[in-house]
């Protein structure tokens, strides 16, 4: 349990730095998403070979349409998130992206007939109010491109929620194998996208190449392996709680290293998004134990 918890903490902390690294890579969002998927897929293939885990081809064949669809959504989710980093601060992009759990909460009662209580609806409404607050509507201190960045972040949240919901339908393929084929699907849709939108002219440079390798190998390949390995050994509520390390690290780095400021209203809005989304994930009543 301790090893799994440490793995989850490390993966979440590293995920929280991706915005900082993305800003150092002189490539388009589509290119970064494509190379990220290629590098991560290579890492996972290597990990599966080292650990001698065979691919469940029969199960994959049955789930292939859903794997391809969720992988395509994952690829374009990355593009929109990286675009959000271009137009607004890392903290605002991350907070708008973290609206995804609210979307999942709203969609599950409709798609899966899951019951949603008063707490879930109140948390969803208050997190939505938080999103409105971080947009900074009517605040002259907020830059003109900020709303565009928030829009990209919310678009990424919709696609991430789509991936989560599609994964609920995938019953026969485990986490790491599922992620590998989703990366393959992302590569399939991102290659024509990058070709059609046009690659970046010129050379990426040594610094940009180094950061691209880190994003692909460490942030995605290595940390996805850590994340899924740890998730198997931790209760769902613990996973949900530790997931908040990601946005907290992103916000701290945005303020301390990138010197990206937030207005007081945006800070309150961000706190509402994280606070009410977290509240939605935890049980308020202690479980009864049998003595």
Number of helices: 13
Mean pLDDT: 84
Weakly predicted, low-confidence segments = 286-291
Helix content: over 70%
Number of domains: 1
Instruction: Return Rg in Å.
Output: 19 Å
Q: What's the end-to-end separation, in Å?
A: 24 Å
For the report, how would you describe the main beta sheet? none
Describe the fold and architecture.
The chain has 291 residues and is mostly helical. It has one domain (2-281). It is built from 13 helices and no strands. The protein has helices spanning 2-15, 18-22, 29-50, 57-87, 90-97, 100-111, 118-135, 146-169, 175-197, 205-232, 236-242, 245-256, 264-281. α1 runs antiparallel to α10 and α7 (118-135) packs antiparallel against α13 (264-281). The longest helix is centred in the N-terminal third of the chain and has 31 residues, at 57-87.
SSE diagram, text form:
Blueprint: H1 2-15, H2 18-22, H3 29-50, H4 57-87, H5 90-97, H6 100-111, H7 118-135, H8 146-169, H9 175-197, H10 205-232, H11 236-242, H12 245-256, H13 264-281
Helix pairs in contact: 1-10, 1-12, 3-4, 3-9, 3-10, 4-8, 4-9, 5-8, 5-12, 6-7, 6-8, 7-13
Summarize the structure.
Helix content is 76%, strand content 0%. It has 291 residues and is mainly alpha-helical. The chain has one domain.
């Amino acid at each position: 349990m301790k090893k799994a918890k440490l793995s989850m903490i490390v993966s979440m902390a590293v995920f929280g730095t991706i915005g900082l690294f993305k800003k150092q890579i002189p490539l388009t969002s589509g290119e970064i998403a494509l190379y990220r998927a290629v590098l991560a897929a290579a890492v996972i293939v290597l990990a599966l070979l080292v650990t001698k885990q065979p691919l469940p081809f029969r199960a994959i064949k049955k789930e292939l349409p859903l794997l391809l669809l969720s992988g395509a959504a994952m690829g374009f989710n990355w593009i929109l998130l990286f675009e959000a980093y271009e137009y607004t601060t890392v903290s605002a992009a991350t907070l708008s992206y973290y609206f995804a759990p609210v979307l999942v909460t709203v969609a599950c009662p409709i798609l899966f007939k899951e019951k949603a209580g008063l707490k879930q609806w109140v948390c969803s409404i208050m997190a939505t109010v938080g999103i409105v607050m971080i947009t900074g509507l009517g605040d002259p201190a907020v830059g003109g491109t900020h709303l565009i960045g928030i829009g990209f972040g919310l678009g990424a949240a919709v696609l991430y929620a789509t991936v989560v919901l599609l994964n609920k339908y995938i019953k026969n393929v485990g986490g790491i194998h599922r992620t590998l084929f989703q990366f393959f699907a992302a590569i399939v849709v991102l290659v024509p996208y990058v070709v059609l939108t046009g690659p970046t002219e010129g050379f990426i440079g040594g610094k940009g190449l180094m950061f691209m390798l880190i994003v692909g190998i460490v942030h995605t390949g290595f940390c996805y392996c850590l994340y899924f390995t740890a998730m198997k050994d931790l209760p769902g509520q613990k996973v949900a709680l530790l997931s908040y390390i990601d946005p907290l690290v992103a916000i701290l780095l945005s303020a301390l290293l990138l010197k990206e400021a937030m207005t007081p209203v945006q800070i309150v809005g961000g706190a509402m998004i994280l606070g009410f989304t977290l509240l939605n994930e935890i049980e308020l009543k202690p479980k009864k134990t049998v003595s």
